[in-house]
Every structure is written in C-alpha cells, then in structure tokens.
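Thread: Peptidyl-prolyl cis-trans isomerase, structure

OP (GT): Posting the sequence first so everyone is looking at the same thing. Length is 317 residues per the record. Can we get the structure tokens written out before standup tomorrow? I want them in the notebook alongside the other entries.
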Amino acid sequence: MEGTIRVRRKNAFRKTNEMKVTKNWQKWTFAVSLIGLFIAQWSCAPDPGEALNDRKRRENEEEIKAYIAKNNLNAVKDDVTGVYIVKTKSVPTGQTPVEGDEMRYYFVQQRLDGLVVDSSETAAKIPGIVTIGAPTQGKITARLYNGLQLLKEGEEAIILAPYDPTDNKSGNLLLPAYTPVRYDIKVVSVRTEEEQIQDYLVAKGLTAAEKTTSGLRFLLTQAYPDSALVKVGQTAKIKYKGTLLNGNQFDANSTGADFSVGTGAVIAAWDEALVKMREGEKATIVLPSAIGYGTAGKSPIPPYAPLAFDIEIVSAN
C-alpha cells in the first residue's frame, strides 16, 4: 500500500511539473508574440523624428501620384511651389502674370475623391480676382494662388496640390486638415495696372485725359481760367471722392477738407494734380499705384491698386 501511494505521489508530482512547464511555455510564447507584434507595428509606424507637417506632405504626395496614375494624367510638378499641373488648354502667346498684375479666373476645388468643396460663381459669370504680389487681398488660398501663377491669360489647367502650411490646417467637414486638393482653373484675363487704367478710361469716356510722365491721367471737367492757380505751399480746401477702378468708394468729403499742397502731406498724384488746377475748378484724375498707395496699399485700398478721384478746389490760400 505504501509503495502504491508513493507511485501515485510521484505521478502527481510529474504531472504538476508538466503543467507548470506547459503554462510557462504558453506565457513565453504569448510574450514573444507580443514582442513580434510590437516590432512589426514599430517598423510600419512613422519615423518619430519626422515632423507632422513633413509626414503629411509626403503622404499627400503619394496620394497625388496615385491619383495621377489612376487617371492617366500628364502632370508636371512645379519644383518651386510643389504643385502638379496638367494644362488642358495652352495659350503660348497669352500674357504671363507678373507682380502687380490683376488676374481674373474661374475655379472649382475638389477633393481627390471627387467631392466639390468650393468654386467661383462660374454660372453667374463672376470671376475671382487676385493681384499678383498681394494674394491675401483676394482672400485666396496659397494653393490656388500658386497654381494661378503657372498659367497665362486664356489658359486652363488641373492643379493637384498637397497641403500648404500657410493655409488653414484646422480643416472642416468638407475638407479635413491636411487633405490634398484638385483645382480646375480657367484664367479669364491678366491685366497690368496700365491696362486696367486704359480699360477704365474707355469705359468711363475719359480717353481725352492728359497723361503725364508719372502715369497720372488728368482731365479738367470744370474750368475757371480767370481764377488763380493753386501753388506749392498753399492750403487748399478740397471736395473729393475716391474709388477703386471697380467702382468701390473708399473715401469722400463733400464739404471740403484742408490739405497742404506740394509738401508730401498727400499722395504724389494729388501734389501733381493740384498745381494744375485753379480755385473753383473740378477734375478727374486716374493714377497708378506708384503715385498712390504703392505696393503696400492702405486699408481699405489694396496693394498695387490704381485709383480714380473726382476733385474740386473750393479755395486755396
């Protein structure tokens, strides 16, 4: 009996050890599996040293390249802006935009999955407007602005653009943050300041205006030849109205305000125009930004803006 008990105890002990070994093996195998899974995930994870913006930009590039391949597009990457362009209508003789030029255009913005998120009022024939060198004045995104500069007057193109750090990265329901986009663009016109002024003079019937060496257009609309000429150093009381060439009024005084003449107290165009006038006279002047508010502008006058003024000299002394 005692021998039988010892055998049973020995068998029980052996089974217990075998169970412990089995459980330890299972634990070890599970641990190894976890380590393997971690290593696999880590190898596929983004480089922790890569900045978020750089990683998103790289991912956008991959999405755009896949989109180009899928749609068999003959796209060319612009190395300066990083956008991809597919010209669907080329106009080699079209006017190339340079700083200070006004561009009018139509556009449709969509995600790469085809969802349209924004567009100009194409159906109503109201183009978007931007001045090169002053994109914020047109409330235009950096990606659209970069694409426009790659086109000439009359050209049409598809622009594929990764996110731009100067755009709003917060995103929205239609266009989440860091989303690549497609723009379909048609450039209606590219006009220099001089061309804008010429168009305005024709439209307003002011083609008889004198053009001075500074680019000022001066047209006397009410003459008093017997009155005294305004002189440098005098203080002139002036009634005036100032507008952008699109007709938007930015300033006016109908009762008369005092200005020092020829001392730099007013814009250069005024200093030039006032000494060409006499008390009681009226004139219309149209001027380039170089003798107005220049490349910086002055709110609400945008940069590079040609302007028009109606001026009346009430008195000068």
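GT: Both are above now. Quick notes for whoever picks this up: The longest strand covers residues 249-260. Residues 1-10, 36-44 have pLDDT under 50 and may be disordered.
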